[in-house]
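Sorry to interrupt, but I need a hand with the structure work. I would like you to pick a protein and set down its sequence and fold. Please put the record directly below this note.
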Amino acid sequence: MWAESLKPDLLVPLMILEQPLLFYRDQYGVAAALDDMCPHRLAPLSLGRLLPNGNLQCGYHGLEFDSSGQCVRNPHGSGRIPRACAVHRYTLVERHRLLWIWPGDETPDPGAIPDFSFLDEDSGYDVGPRDTIRMDSNYRNIIDNLMDLSHASFLHPDLLGNEETIQARIDIKQEGNSVQVRRDMNDVRPPLLRDLLFKQDGARVNMWNSIRWDAPSALLNDVGTYAPEADPAQFAGQLGCHILTPQTADTTLYFTAAAKQGPLASRSADGEVDFKARIAELRRTAFKDQDDPMIRAQQINIRLHPGVRPVLFEIDAAPVRCQRILNALIEEEQKRVSSRISEEP
């Protein structure tokens, strides 16, 4: 979730991986994430309140918990606190204006957080509005959508692609648990968003569209536009983040933001603030009004026909690599959990 959305004195309940969680900031402003369930009567802690000392008070019987999840006060009777009266706390790291959580039981590794430093306040990039979109689809379908850049000509006609951008030179690279796909399209009519970011004259252009996926669900989009026969370094484009947080098997929170890049990035005569708002609205239109209905309908078909395997084409190479990596990581984790359970007395 966006760090800015977690304001002081605010309790934010959020479903992640079918698990109700509670996010808040302690008295020092440090973000914390706990299971949203009091161990006493299993009431949601999000229906309680934050106290001035930073403790979280259950709204049902007044038990108080510190930010580690430990119960520190029982206002009833002798005040005795059973050892089991604690709430699980999740490791949470605030970086790149985002909150990154470790829902599993492995040792957290902050070094595994992908590089989204262009979002940082001191990055030098002028980042547009940070948006959150709830999409009614499994996160893996959204990964397929984002890593299959060829769909822009059909699902986003004239906004992100057109009939001239169907054909492209495609390059795919894989390094560890990261996959990157790039499409280069030369001497084409620019779609609306590319034209707005470039010279706004409708003249033919060369374009690239590159997206990097880092397991399990963080993607960085790098797009650029430049004049045919010109130096590609003289371009205008965007960097865009696409962070997917699975809520349930059928819903995903989509965190996205973009920043202009390149020496020829356009500025609007109507004002930069309005220009950034328009770009952000066009991006939301593509994701929520065009991608979401298609992916949602696709997921319904997938559920109705569980035994049907998709017929794959060359354009599916990058999504397939991502899904294979995910399958391997999930299988590895399941084996690790099974082994640990079998070793328990």
